[in-house]
Amino acid sequence: MSIKLRVIDDDERGKWDTLVAASPHGTLFHTWKWLKVMEKHTMSKFYPLMGLKRTTPVGVFPLFYQKRFLVRTVFSPPPSTAVHHLGPLLVDYNRLKQDRKESIFTEFQREVDRFMVSDLKADYIWIGLPPGLLDARPFKWTGYQIEPAYDYLIDLSRGADYVWQQFKKNLRQNISRAEKRGISVETGSKRELEMIYDSLSKRYREQDTTLSLPESYLLDLYDLFYPENMKIFVAKYNGDYVGGLIDLYYKDKVVSWLGNVKASVECVSPNDLLQWEAIRYAIEHGMKCYEEMGANTERLCKYKSKYNPDPSIRFSAKKYSSVMLRLGETAYHRVWKPINRRLKFSE
């Protein structure tokens, strides 16, 4: 029995989220509520695809369709969302033997590709595979260009003392110095989220560019995911805000998502202490992994590597129609490449 695709509706959001939670590669970004906020704020048409064998789900694949500059595009995730990966999830993937993994994933991907090319008439497709799904061959076999990307992971399972000792010596010194000079870190809420957004916007202006992430998008996410899945940390000096960080909690992983903009405090940077307190908070609340999204820029990696994380690879896949190749390339650079600029700055 071959895999059949179905575009599901809002009445089946519970089934969708159950499959996301059960998948070893499922992320908070895959949850129904997050996907619907993406659709609202990106002028996209959301296609929640479910693959089934008979009536049994084998996978889900969120797609976002846009038509810009006369080019029909499909993204997963869509631009201007500060999300670098989304893509397919397969049911019980880690429990399957290799031949079953390959056969199901390959057939599922071929059906999704047929839907994007034949039904949506896509001229340009960009898919960011989720972390841990390392087999990108089904995309290669359907004509996609595959590119690697990197994140950083910190193992939290051995406790705060162990994690602290793994930090570079001068990082530990910077953290201790920040505390001694009066920097404090506390949790925040919506007001502090707005402060973080303002600092991001200011940093972009200083770099002569525009932040393409809508504040209303963040506020909608806050209303849906705070405080269970969204944590906000702020650094203060003499009672004033000097830095902030937004972390996302899902399953046993924390994603360090937005913030840590270079601070203007002259005496000492708050960012090292801010990050450390966020890590300690995650450990105290039973989280097992801390992910720094984006380890692809050498300048930023020189800072992030001081935390002694492990590099983690993931893949993206893109495909052009032969007729619209040149226009598709133009659309890519105009609507996708800007969001690949890091929204989370460091020293």
Strands, count: 13
Please, how many helices?
11
Shape: globular
Look at the structure and give the mean pLDDT: 92
Q: Which key terms come to mind for this protein?
A:
2 domains, 13 strands, 347 residues, disordered C terminus, 13-stranded mixed β-sheet, single chain, Aminopeptidase, 36% helix, alpha+beta, 11 helices
Describe the structure.
With 347 residues, this protein is of the alpha+beta class. It folds into two domains: 4-149 and 315-340, Gcn5-related N-acetyltransferase (GNAT) (Aminopeptidase); 152-311, Gcn5-related N-acetyltransferase (GNAT) (Aminopeptidase, 3-Layer(aba) Sandwich), CATH 3.40.630. It is built from eleven helices and 13 strands. The protein has helices spanning 13-22, 32-41, 98-119, 137-140, 160-166, 169-180, 190-206, 215-225, 271-284, 298-304, 325-335; strands at 4-7, 45-53, 56-68, 71-76, 89-90, 124-128, 145-155, 184-187, 230-237, 240-250, 253-259, 289-292, 310-320. Strands 1, 2, 3, 4, 5, 6, 7, 8, 9, 10, 11, 12 and 13 form a 13-stranded mixed β-sheet that branches. Strand 11, helix 9 (271-284) and strand 12 (289-292) form a beta-alpha-beta unit. Helix 2 runs antiparallel to helix 8 (215-225) and helix 7 (190-206) packs antiparallel against helix 8 (215-225). The radius of gyration is 21 Å and the shape is globular. The chain starts with a strand and ends in a 12-residue tail after the last helix.
Summary, kept brief:
This protein is an alpha+beta fold and 347 residues long. It contains eleven helices and 13 strands.
